[in-house]
Each structure stands twice: as structure tokens, then as C-alpha cells.
Amino acid sequence: MKEHEMDIYLDGVKTRVDLRKMDYTSLRNLSIKLQRILGDNSFIHEMILKSDLYYFRQEISAKTVGVLQKHGIMTVAELMTCSYEKLAEMDGLGSKSLSEIVGFIKELGK
Question: Residue 25 and residue 71: Cα distance in Å, rounded?
Fold first, then answer.
């Protein structure tokens, strides 16, 4: 089993889950449930930060992800280090895209 995979047993049936292929909302929900059970979700938070923005197209539009990647922002961690001012200066990011990004970052902070 690879580091980004986990086995889940439901009613005696084993299912292997690839965390890299899960969307942000599913990862977030899993994180919340694990935090309640284990009291720590740092592993999942690390996985989210290392994840390519491509996997978050449900939370951030494909157009916005494309513009960010064009400007060299490939991962969630790289996005988190960008200031609002730097993002606002990027060609192709309008107020709607900036609003998406701000909402996404706020959601990660919860």
C-alpha cells in the first residue's frame, strides 16, 4: 500500500482509497470524522497542502485553476503562500476568481 492510500473495511469488505483522487469536500469530511475519532488530522491537512490544485476543480473553477497554474501556482500550499495583492495582479483573475480563492482558503482554515 502506498503512503497516499488507505484501506477501509465496511461490513467485512476491504476497499482501498486513494486520497489523492478524492475531492476537497470528501477529504474535509473525512478529516473532520477522523479528528473526532483520533483527535489529530495533521496527516490529511498535509496531504491537502501537497495536492495539485487540479484536484480541487469542484471548489475552484477550472479556469481559475488554469490561470493559477499558468502563473506557477501548482499546489494548495503554494496558493496559501500568495498574498491577495499578488493574486489580484495576475492576468486572468477577476473578482469572481478571487472570491472563489478567498472562499477556498477560508474553508481550509476551518
Answer: 25
Q: Do 35 and 54 fall within a single domain?
A: no
- On whether both 71 and 95 belong to a single domain, the answer is yes
Domain count, the chain: 2
pLDDT at 70: 94
Residue matched to cell numbers 476491504: 14
Structural domain including 59 reads 47-109
> Identity (one letter) of the amino acid at 33?
K
Structural contact between residues 15 and 7, judged by C-beta atoms closer than 8 angstroms:
yes
The pLDDT tens digits of the residues spanning 39-73 come to 666 766 777 777 788 778 778 899 999 999 999 99
Under a CB-based contact definition with an 8 Å cutoff, are residues 44 and 30 in contact?
A: yes
- Whether residues 61 and 105 share a domain: the answer is yes
More confident residue, 6 or 10: 6
